């Protein structure tokens, strides 16, 4: 106890022994230290992406009907059936086919007869040409009627609509599908989305570029698509260009008409040095930061890379873990004394 009291007494004597100038010098040093906040250089991922919206569409869609009006004799499929390319879907009445066949047979006889007469020189070339033209037209008409009596699947897909029943008369007038149709066929194994892209962003796209699709019907789930086609022109009124995206419809989860959000990563850096963008200062065309070193503010030139939102990539000038002034950096000057009041660590990745 006596030793403790002695130490306290000696300390008091030492303090009293300090002159006024020494005390003021200590206070001045404390006051001159500028309060700052710092952050540490970290390593992380940084990327920039563009966002669009669109509507899912089938990769292929066809309204299937006959080239000529007639009675629907037989429909071999129902709505929802899956068919393969070349499958017979509808059989039409062959009444017109019988007539076309009879007409062709009659004209073929005339053609054979006129050809023989032409070879003998008993008819003119002009007379034969008239018969030949009629015969050629009859053959084309027969082929058209023949192909129209049977409707085949032009591609593999699913029957998504059935507009007519057997026994009904098909006409060439527009129907529910917008064009004359008996069935509607869609390829739903693949889907497409067409997005409108501002002309300034068009150079960022190239065929095969991968994009991320988000569908409201499946929150939190990502689907992958690729750029399939880029419009060769830009709309002069909107300054937009169309870009077609193609995607696989695994499991048939996606449906035509669904609302989709498209995210396109156009620039990405992985595992790079990053700092808050506010730490970067500019002067005389260059960029620099202030480091906190041994209680002093030290200016350091830096080379910056990708800047996204509030985060900037540093290509050169700093090292991982460096202490950078993030608040007060516009107040301090090189060599100023600083007092750190708070330090933070930025997240390891950012997107925009």
Question: What is the string of SSEs from the N terminus onward?
Answer: HHEEEEEEHHEEEEEEEEEEEEEEEE
Number of helices: 4
Backbone CA Rg: 41 Å
CATH class (first level) name of the largest domain: Mainly Beta
Q: What structural class do you assign from the helix and strand content?
A: alpha+beta
Terminal CA distance reads: 66 Å
Question: Which term fits the overall shape?
Answer: elongated
User: Could you please say which CATH topology of the largest domain applies here?
Assistant: OB fold (Dihydrolipoamide Acetyltransferase, E2P)
- Summed up, the domain count is 3
The CATH superfamily name of the largest domain is RNA polymerase II/Efflux pump adaptor protein, barrel-sandwich hybrid domain
- Number-wise, the strands total 22
pLDDT < 50 runs, ≥5 residues: 1-18
Mean pLDDT: 84
CATH architecture of the largest domain: Beta Barrel
What does this entry look like structurally?
This protein is α+β, with helices and mostly antiparallel strands. The chain folds into three domains: 100 residues, conserved putative lor/sdh protein from methanococcus maripaludis s2 fold, CATH 2.40.420; 87 residues, Elongation Factor Tu (Ef-tu), domain 3 (Beta Barrel); 120 residues, Beta Barrel (OB fold (Dihydrolipoamide Acetyltransferase, E2P)), CATH 2.40.50. 22% of the residues lie in helices and 44% in strands. It contains four helices and 22 strands. Strands 2, 3, 5, 8, 10, 11, 12, 13, 14, 18, 19 and 22 form a twelve-stranded mixed sheet that branches. A four-stranded antiparallel sheet has the order 7-6-4-9. Helix 3 runs antiparallel to helix 4. The two termini are 66 Å apart. The N terminus is likely disordered.
């Amino acid at each position: 106890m006596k030793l403790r009291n002695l130490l306290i007494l000696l300390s008091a004597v030492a303090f009293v022994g300090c002159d006024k100038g020494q005390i003021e010098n200590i206070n001045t040093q404390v006051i001159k230290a500028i309060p700052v906040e710092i952050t540490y250089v970290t390593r992380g991922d940084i990327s920039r992406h563009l966002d669009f919206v669109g509507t899912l569409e089938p990769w292929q869609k066809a309204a299937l009907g006959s080239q000529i009006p007639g009675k629907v004799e037989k429909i071999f499929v129902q709505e929802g059936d899956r068919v393969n390319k070349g499958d017979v879907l509808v059989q039409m009445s062959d009444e017109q086919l019988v007539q076309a066949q009879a007409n062709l047979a009659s004209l073929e006889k005339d053609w054979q007869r006129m050809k023989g007469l032409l070879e003998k020189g008993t008819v003119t070339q002009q007379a034969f040409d008239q018969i030949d033209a009629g015969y050629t037209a009859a053959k084309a008409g027969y082929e058209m009627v023949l192909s129209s009596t049977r409707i085949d699947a032009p591609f593999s897909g699913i029957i998504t609509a059935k507009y007519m029943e057997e026994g009904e008369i098909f006409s060439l007038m527009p129907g529910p599908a917008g064009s004359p149709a008996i069935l509607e066929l869609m390829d739903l194994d693949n889907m497409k989305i067409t997005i409108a892209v501002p002309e300034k962003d068009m150079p960022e796209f190239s065929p095969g570029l991968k994009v991320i699709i988000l569908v409201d019907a499946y929150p939190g789930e990502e689907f992958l698509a690729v750029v399939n086609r880029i419009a060769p022109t830009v709309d002069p009124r909107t300054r937009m260009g169309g870009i077609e995206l193609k995607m696989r419809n695994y499991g048939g989860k996606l449906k035509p008409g669904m609302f989709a959000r498209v995210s396109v990563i156009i620039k990405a850096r992985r595992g790079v040095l990053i700092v808050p963008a506010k730490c970067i200062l500019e002067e005389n065309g260059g960029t620099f930061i202030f480091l906190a070193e041994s209680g002093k503010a030290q200016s350091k030139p830096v080379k910056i890379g990708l800047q996204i939102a509030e985060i900037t990539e540093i290509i050169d000038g700093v090292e991982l873990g460096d202490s950078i002034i993030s608040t007060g950096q516009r107040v301090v000057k090189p060599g100023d004394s600083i007092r750190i009041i708070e330090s933070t660590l930025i997240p390891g990745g950012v997107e925009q």
